[in-house]
DUF1989 domain-containing protein (Hoeflea halophila), 392 residues
Amino acid sequence: MTNRIPPRSGTAFELKKGQLLTVVDPEGEQVSDLVAYNAEDTREYLSSGRSIDYAGRMFLTTGDILYSNRSVPMLKIVEDEVGRHDFSLTPCSRDTFRIIYGDKDPHHGCQGNLENALAPYGIGPDAIPTAFNVFMHVAVDSDSGEIKVLPPKSKPGQKTVFRAEMDLIIAMTACSAGQSNNFRYKPIDFRIDNAA
Amino acid sequence: MTNRIPPRSGTAFELKKGQLLTVVDPEGEQVSDLVAYNAEDTREYLSSGRSIDYAGRMFLTTGDILYSNRSVPMLKIVEDEVGRHDFSLTPCSRDTFRIIYGDKDPHHGCQGNLENALAPYGIGPDAIPTAFNVFMHVAVDSDSGEIKVLPPKSKPGQKTVFRAEMDLIIAMTACSAGQSNNFRYKPIDFRIDNAA
């Protein structure tokens, strides 16, 4: 069963160890901010710094492991039709839209959507870390370190599949930031399957 | 007064709004992992993801602001003789030495030193985020995203100066990871001054 995350919204759900999470970009060039917590102890969360260090790469893809802040594997990327994601930026928020876009009456962004989705699990706003931004295309200049948020490489229907390495609470969005999706706010689809 | 952080150790202290923190590399090619918390509410902490997003650059230097997870300025870099630091990796830890270096009986690393230094402030191990790694030189390949930890660019006696933008609890280390300091474990010096 495919679930749809409508434009500029988010959701949260449990993903059991061994289950597969397939994230699909139904229309292409959209981003999904993904965060994860140990279902047994939500103080354990997805850590960009640990994952990048152990992979030796900023950009993770098939075969790479997303580690927790306690250096325990949380998710493994088992299939990846897109091959480019970001793990350096926090979810867009009221402040992002105020500081970067200059919006006077800013949208609450992925941060607000993740906060609302995670509240029923007792996970508060301060516990939302740097997200694994599925399909997000951030170019980095090797010399200056300058970053540019480019349109995602994902084409309509392309997917990335994650396997849960522990029992997790996952929250995901259909991204609210124009730069991330080429200013066409689109939905994100996902599916949960038991391992074959 | 200059304080010395001995090799492979750490310390924590309060830094009041407006005070200047000068971090000195006395022997050159050493790294100091730095984390910061709002002294009034330690759930507010230094956020690599927010800071990189707002700066539009992975590598921060003079004039750049280190933001909290709540998008509030915590520290501003007001002087920087080195110009290259890392904000993508978590502190080295028992697990770092086990996973990356293959150590059988690993050192507790900067993570352990930060945990010990922060315990008196009621800040626990899970609250230690991706650090601002002063003088750490991480090269990033634009295409593959591959990272390489290179010897720091800091020469003996060079410094970077931060100004506190709010009342803070700071923890800092003299880094324990061989890759970060060219396998010569050295001390780090720091000084606190009131604004002129």
Summary: The longest helix of chain B spans residues 109-118. The helical segments of chain B are 48-55, 94-99, 109-118.
